[in-house]
């Protein structure tokens, strides 16, 4: 760790370097195992709002430190798939393609198989997620992030007018069975779990509560229909929005380095796991910070 603590101000010197034209910046020289001063926290908070995805390099932090840093941004949300909680840390969801000797998955291996914003199926979706690399494959395993402010800004005017006031339904179950058929990671949900994932309705275009910027807020993973439209029209409009929202120019591709901690804004970006070859191991720990009611 190369953080230098300035004893006079109790702030550390660290760099924030943009990674891409549209989104993403890396934070170099900050050690998140130490408590952040208010000034450092304010700088990180600002950078997160400006760049939407922050990559904190070389974070040799414990799960408890990961949770503590995440909590500075708000209360944490517990994922419905409790089988994949890290022991002793219910706030951490293990994202992994690794199986135990008995063949049981240790984490959710197909998290991010479709583009999505985390927990958009909740009445109160997520502010942001923090994913910490534990074990990385020698190839593959990238995560893609798409800037939904840019997607909204560049939406053709006619489409902007068409979707401006619309609401859409988001459901955790939208593609659950499809994923369950093709992978060993998804258990059959219990009645208690089903009660945790009642579908939610949100604006198709949301306003970021801290910056006031508009963003598209529909995803191929969780958005099931546009409220009030006939089914075929709803399907066609959503397909058009999905295709528009993840074009290359809006996307930053994150190639993981050991000990990266990536913190993205679920109000501004969607993300996708690009996939890991089956014979290679990948394991990361994720926390999810609660946001507010989209408007
Ligand atoms: C996720 O969707 O939270 C996981 C993304 C990834 O595994 O790259």
Q: Would you mind describing this structure in some detail?
A:
The chain has helices spanning 38-51, 63-71, 148-153, 157-163, 176-182, 191-196, 231-245, and strands spanning 4-6, 11-13, 15-18, 25-28, 53-56, 85-86, 89-96, 126-135, 143-147, 167-170, 200-203, 205-207, 214-216, 223-226, 251-254, 261-265, 269-273, 283-290. It contains 7 helices and 18 strands. The protein is of the alpha+beta class and 295 residues long. Succinic acid is lined by residues 95, 111-112, 129, 143, 271, 273, 286.
Shape: globular
Find the CATH superfamily: Clavaminate synthase-like
**What order do the helices and strands follow?**
EEEEHEHEEEEHHEHHEEEEHEEEE
What are the low-pLDDT stretches, counting only 5+ consecutive residues below 50?
A: 1-9
State the share of residues found in helices, binned by percent.
10-25%
CATH topology: Double-stranded beta-helix
CATH class placement: Alpha Beta
- In total, the number of strands is 18
Q: How many angstroms separate the termini?
A: 40 Å
Bound molecules: succinic acid
As for the number of domains, it is 1
Sheet with the most strands: spatial strand order: 3-4-5-16-8-18-7-6
- CATH architecture label name: 4-Layer Sandwich
Structural category is alpha+beta
Oligomer type: single chain
Number of helices: 7
Strand content: 25-35%
Largest beta-sheet details:
8 strands, mixed
| Radius of gyration over all CA atoms, rounded | 19 Å
Overall residue-averaged pLDDT value: 94
